[in-house]
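Ligand: oxaloacetate ion. Inputs:
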Amino acid sequence: MSTTRGLEGVVATTSSISSIIDDTLTYVGYNIDDLAENASFEEVIFLLWHLRLPTQSELDELKKQLAENAALPKEVIEHFKMYPIKDVHPMAALRSAVSLLGLYDEEADVMDEEANYRKAIKLQAKMPSIITAFARIRNGQEPVAPRTDLGFAANFLYMLSGKDPEPVEIEAFNKALVLHADHELNASTFTARVCVATLSDVYSGVTAAIGALKGPLHGGANEQVMKTLTEIGSVENVESAIRKKLDNKEKIMGFGHRVYRQGDPRAKHLKEMSRRLTELRGESKYYEMSTKIEELVTSEKNLPPNVDFYSASVYHSLEIDHDLFTPVFALSRVSGWLAHILEQYSNNRLIRPRADYTGPGKQSYVPIEKRG
Ligand SMILES: CC(=O)SCCNC(=O)CCNC(=O)[C@H](O)C(C)(C)COP(=O)(O)OP(=O)(O)OC[C@H]1O[C@@H](n2cnc3c(N)ncnc32)[C@H](O)[C@@H]1OP(=O)(O)O
Ligand SMILES: O=C([O-])CC(=O)C(=O)O
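Predicted complex:
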């Protein structure tokens, strides 16, 4: 049997949702650059789930359904107050809350197409409520209810801070959500598909995907980028700190990609957003540090930044707590996970690859008292 480490280059399924061809990312054939400039996140959700853009009335209906389903069962809010460990990571809280939600949905295990679509709406709608309720409760604040007059991006920022977000913040956050929504067969999406291909339920698939996104080689990298920036602390320190990391063969978080070779097409949008937002805040240090790190890592290692690199300074400028960066990624990517889960159910076959055994040859059982 031949193996490929980390399944590199292995084509594991067909999919009509998104594609990466020659370093170009498209959702259902629409170039990501086009969507980033023009689409609302709600339009992208519809696109991923229906494989076409919505009409105005379809978009209005989706927004209405998301608004109607945003409230959390009170038990989910209460459970955020009961964690035994003080500094629970928000990704662990999100993973647990999504799993818990399944216990409060009577049709969690109903497997027909319409019930699964209803679960997709419920999960997408509740993600902002989960993340913001957790974030506020741990700060000793009450959760803020969503407003029906705000779209998805604006509502999240409003529910997090309790303040009306500025138009420039809404525009940037909407764009970040659009850019993170789907990405072919990345590790968390593959995890979701493997899970539901056993005909397990939607809540299990999304819970599993959150677990996979949490790791620093995947979605968890955006929080690590911010850690790198705060540890380095100033533009003057960048060169020596990054050279030291490279000499020590440490990975520089937010660089490199399994699929892209010339660069991640999402990074340029986030870079520009980072420039604008940090300038607007009068705090361009993190943008300047980031561009300097990019220059160094690109010239020394020929590794371009990925989606996680500039999203760190963007989210920092939006005054989002650093450990909420990966939950914010999940807030967007859940739309892609749900699209892939629905696609998997529609043409399902168990996903079960093989392993090339490299352990010892034939052995005979030795009773425990004779083992040395
Ligand atoms: C949303 C996302 O998930 S985007 C990715 C987010 N993750 C990160 O930013 C973490 C940092 N990046 C990485 O760890 C990797 O580039 C990955 C995981 C994204 C892709 O990894 P792979 O395709 O498996 O490449 P792999 O880890 O095998 O690296 C290949 C070579 O490039 C080097 N390399 C890859 N990424 C980096 C990096 N960020 N910094 C320094 N060196 C790197 C490796 O050390 C390795 O070098 P070697 O051949 O001399 O040993
Ligand atoms: O595709 C990947 O391997 C990781 C990635 O960029 C994403 O999930 O957005």
